[in-house]
Amino acid sequence: MTDTSKTTNSAGTDDGGRHRGEEHPAPADARASGARVSRRGVLGAVGAGAVGGLVVGAGGGIGAYAATRPAAPTPLTHLGSDAVAFHGTHQAGISTPMQAVGHLVAFDLAPGAGRAEAIALLRRWTACAAPMTEGRPAPGHDTDVALDEGPSALTVTFGFGRSFFDRTGLVKQRPVQLDPLPAFSSDHLDPARSDGDLWIQVGSDDALVAFHALRALQKEAGSTARVRWLMSGFNRSPGATAHPMTMRNLMGQVDGTGNPKPSEPRFGEEIFVPAKPHGTLASPAWMAGGSYAVVRRIRMLLDDWESMPVGKQEKVIGRRKSDGAPLTGGTEDTAMALTKKGPDGELVIPADAHARIAQPSANGGAAMLRRSYSYNDGLRGDGKPDAGLLFVAWQADPLKGFVPVQRKLDRGDALSAFIRHEASGLFAVPAGAAKGEYVGQRLMES
């Protein structure tokens, strides 16, 4: 839950090139038409030369839609037509604007499965994922779950865990960045819900589209790999606010302030592995253009948190709950006045406030792109909520990003009293696949 990131859910290019007219939203008049977009309608329009990923007037269904929706919905409510390119320099789902639904799933290779079987699996997964991100059915026997829907900003992102390299005889290609994360005092980790040979992140703006993709990928695993763990989460849906805003977590806090933006000069070097690695701890060449994902399941002690008045909650975070601005004033993007004191002579932003400790300037410039989901898994045996944050942080090197920041938080973050880290994973996410390639090909054929 570090405060090292700003959401990129409102603008910015995505990894494979989000089809929004090169970073610009579709025309308001088109998005406001209220026409539904079918998966096959998307294909027909694309075949006819449609550009920008927005397809309207696909025919049929308009009368039924008008019976349940306003005649002229606002532009932000048009979800189904957004498409995110699967092929590209980087995998989609890293700098892609935040989606409303996410599934994180780890697989272990089956006993006896090795490099050849893993290559075949990665080929199948690539062939399965690419058409679904365009709104087309999964190859083979499609379940028709998302038959009537457009791509809905579907992304599928693949990664490799440390153990994958042992299982496939590729230990010499394993990055040092995949060394086990250090233990932290806030850890209460469940090994059964941590790590894994392979990892997939599925994201979409529609729950049915996300489930359809998840199910198709699980089926393609066949006898080669079995699910180790699965976690599902959600965020605010696009269009739920009057204008794009930073997400809020289940504590009600604005969650994502300080995130590096794709438009910033250092974004590429902070989030993606450079094309020409250097130094003794450099990632291997096959990781060029890739990124490292730290995944943590963080349960929030919501009963304890919600029992505190808002003023005390804000002291824990160091920011106003209403708008995410620092307690020293301004807006969400205003720099914190860390030395400012109140009439009582105390620091306005307490020394142990989460935002103060986590900020990049307090951690040698360490930067991560946080792209997390909230989760709700019902009630625990003690009747308390089993809910919190599926924390996903992207960086070019976790040894320079997540690890130093979390060590700092571990030594005195006021928020630590209200959270429990219950699962953890670290994955090497290779660069995007070009058309005709499968994800991870540079590693598997090295």
Helix and strand arrangement:
Layout (H helix, E strand, L loop, with lengths): L27 H4 L7 H9 L14 H7 L32 E9 L5 H19 L21 E6 L1 H6 L30 E7 L2 H15 L3 E10 L32 H5 L19 E10 L1 H5 L3 H8 L36 H5 L10 E2 L2 E7 L5 E11 L6 H9 L8 E11 L11 H4 L2
Antiparallel strand pairs: 1-3, 1-4, 2-3, 5-8, 5-9, 6-8, 7-8
Helix pairs in contact: 4-6
The largest β sheet comes out as: 5 strands, antiparallel
How many extended strands? 9
Q: SSE order, as H and E?
A: HHHEHEHEHEHEHHHEEEHEH
Class based on secondary structure composition and strand pairing? alpha+beta
Task: Tell me the helix content.
Answer: 10-25%
Mean pLDDT: 86
Strand % is: 15-25%
Organism: Streptomyces montanisoli
InterPro entries: Dimeric_a/b-barrel, Dyp_perox_C, Dyp_perox_N, Dyp_peroxidase, EfeB/EfeN, TAT_signal
Catalytic activity: heme b + 2 H(+) = protoporphyrin IX + Fe(2+)
EC number: 1.11.1.-
How would you briefly describe this protein structure?
This protein is of the alpha+beta class. Helices cover 22% and strands 16% of the residues.
Notes on the structure:
With 446 residues, this protein is of the alpha+beta class. It has two domains: 19-81, no CATH class; 82-444, no CATH class. It is built from twelve helices and nine strands. The strands form two sheets. Strands 5, 6, 7, 8 and 9 form a five-stranded antiparallel β-sheet that branches. It is globular. The two termini are 36 Å apart.
List keywords for this structure.
alpha+beta; 12 helices; four-stranded antiparallel sheet; about 450 residues
